[in-house]
Amino acid sequence: MICICRGRSSGRMATPRENPPTERPNAVRRMRERRRRKRRDRTEVSCCVKWVVFSQNVLFWIVGMLIFAVGIWAWTEKDTVNNLKRLTSVAVDPAFLLIITGLVTFIIGFTGCVGALRENTFLLATYAFLLGLILLGELTLGVLGFVCREWLKTQAKEQLQVLIRDYREDEDAQDLVDWIQSKWLQCCGITSAGDWNNNMYFNCSSTSSPEACGVPFSCCKPEEGTYANLQCGYGVRRKDDFSDKIYNKGCVDAAQMWLDQNLVIVAAVAVGVAVVQILGICFSQNLRADILAQKAKWTRYK
User: Fold this and answer.
1) Fewer CB in a 10 Å sphere around the end CB: N or C, the chain?
2) Res. 40 pLDDT band, cuts 50 70 90
3) Taking a C-beta distance cutoff of 8 angstroms, is the pair 49, 287 a contact?
4) How many whole angstroms separate alpha carbon 77 and alpha carbon 111?
5) Per the confidence metrics, is the pTM higher than 0.90?
6) CA–CA separation, 236 vs 213, rounded Å?
7) Which residues cross the membrane (predicted)?
């Protein structure tokens, strides 16, 4: 005989909504904790910083190569290797300065560009070190410019004496002097037109030079409505009064006056260059720190 219980049960069957499993809150908590731990452990190299450093230094790299190539071309055109006496004036040789500037720019651009592209921490550290070294040198020169003005003026006079001595012998020196005297400062000589007596072509005792006791054409004041006369300075220092023909101010004093008048612009340019260098150092160090953190994570999970 089959017995059927007709009595009612005292309770109802539990539904999932009313009585959830006790394991579910723990599982959710563990999942959240796992995600939080994974988020804290996530390290990655910033693509934005990487490509900013890379693109900026590609430009420096190309510009450095071009400047270096122009300097080498100018150096070989003057045949300096076979004319060793010109090696004494390399400090003011425009070709030599182009070579040094191009080489330094090329090295900095190379370390920054390849270091960012290959994520090489050594090259990035070298890049930041070179930028910091140049920044320190610029700050040192800026301080010396205000503290040791007389010493800098003495150094400038010595270098200008070399340029005046090599005028006509070195085409680059000649072009540089003409640009300084006519285009930039409107001056003549170091302190006066008499400094051109130190050049053998403009010396008053020279008997074979048609330019004896004269000055270069870049010393002459331009006359409105006329073409430039390349012989305007011939024999001009033989006259008692030549102030209406040539510039009377020396280039050292003219440079100091120009600097005083444009001090704000010079300072703004210097600050702008320094800011770019500081940003380059910060970006490269940030990128290097990201790379090192990523490498540390790989080592930890090997």
Assistant:
1) N
2) very low
3) yes
4) 30
5) no
6) 7
7) 58-75, 95-117, 124-147, 263-283
